[in-house]
Design a protein that fits this description.
The structure holds two protein chains of two kinds.
Chain A lengths: L2 H13 L7 E4 L3 H4 L11 E4 L3 E4 L22 E7 L2 H9 L5 E4 L3 E3 L4 E2 L14 H7 L2 E5 L11 E2 L14 E3 L3 E6 L2 E7 L5 H6 L5 E2 L5 E2 L3
Parallel strand pairs in A: 1-2, 1-5, 5-8, 6-9, 8-10, 12-13, 12-14
Antiparallel strand pairs in A: 2-3, 3-4, 6-7, 10-11, 11-12
Helix pairs in contact in A: 3-4
Chain B lengths: L6 H5 L7 E4 L9 H10 L4 E4 L10 H6 L3 E6 L6 H5 L7 E4 L2 H13 L4 E3 L13 E4 L2 E6 L4 E12 L4 E2 L8 H7 E12 L18 E4 L1
Chain lengths: ~220, ~220
Amino acid sequence: MAEQNGREMIARRIAKEFKDGDIVNLGIGLPTLVANYLPEGVEILLHSENGFIGLGTVPPPGEEDKDLINAGNQFATVVPGASFFDSATSFTIVRGGHIDVTVLGTLEVDREGNIANYIIPGKMMPGMGGAMDMVVGAKKVIIATDHLDKHGNPKILKKCRLPLTAVGEADLIVTDMAVIERTGEGLVLKEIAPGLTVEEVVKNTEAELIVNGSVKTIEV
Amino acid sequence: MNKVTTLENAMKRVTDGMTIMLGGFANVGTPELLVEAVVAKGVKDLTVVCLDAGLPGKGAGKLINARAIKKYITSHVGLNPEFSRQKCSEQPETVLVPQGTLAERIRAGGAGIGGFLTPTGVGTLVEEGKQKLTLNGKDYLLELPLKGDVALVKAYRADKAGNLVFRKSARNFNPLIATACEYVIVEAEQIEDVGVIDPDQVMLSGVFVDAIIQG
């Protein structure tokens, strides 16, 4: 699958999950693209964990403000209606359930909704930053990820092997192959990418997928 | 009342082995002059509390390069590759804390709160060594307050009584650490006479501030 098309499909599909007025936090990388594909009539406000709501676009060259960056250390702007606050308030918003949706990438996710996305022991140990608070506090957690890792191995597992970011918090998983919902019974295959069969998606997923009668093709 | 002083005077309170809290997020809102003065003083064995490890050679990164830190309490060191490149024997003992928990621990330290219960970190490496409590069917970790000896704060405006205004995303941890430390030094871009800043616009009361230097 062409990687760029896959990423765009993931971003477009996730954007359809938002409701007008949602407060949304987007993780770094692929999740950031989601803001480019909001459906008509849907306005959201983006939370930036370093201390504001109302994150806007990247400023044009020469118009950067030394005091205004996003949580990924890029210069940022704010939209009308934005507000700034300190870090305790920022995480009052996060932990207190005032974020409607968070979208984040992951290294692994499993059938119980466990998420592992902040550490590879011995290799990558940058620290968890705000990720643990975010997935625990947001009302809805959407995982945006390639279905397979760069070695071609499934990222949706029976049980996460890496240290966890949080237990049982993933609600929806959107990949370049499928849309999968976590329910009390397990992972339900809801939609598959155009050109794929259910069998191909199941074969590329380590966790058992529940397939009910109607699996739709992803529409973007 | 005039809390404006010289850098040299303010640094008299900084000594070996103390706990310093430092403001900033990816170096935005970091008091660069104060960090440089701590490095220049040559103090050692510091415990530093800071959201991140700064950027290479900037902010907290200067303290790291100067090998001034014994213990580092932080949430994220990924923006400063020099931190992880240091030999293990030279790296400070590092305690990783989720960002929201770090903010709230500092807030608790400044507010006289003995600890708090958070769902963040339950079922992860973060819960190691901590008391876990179940209330109304939900699991929480007991997190304890953090206090410091000296806070290094960056403000946009200060009046001579120490009332502060921060700007945009440079606020971050600055008003929190100012409540949680014995001695609070502010590096302000603008210093005003008392009464110039509208009391309604003050973001941190001067009650928390001990010394102000011109940034």
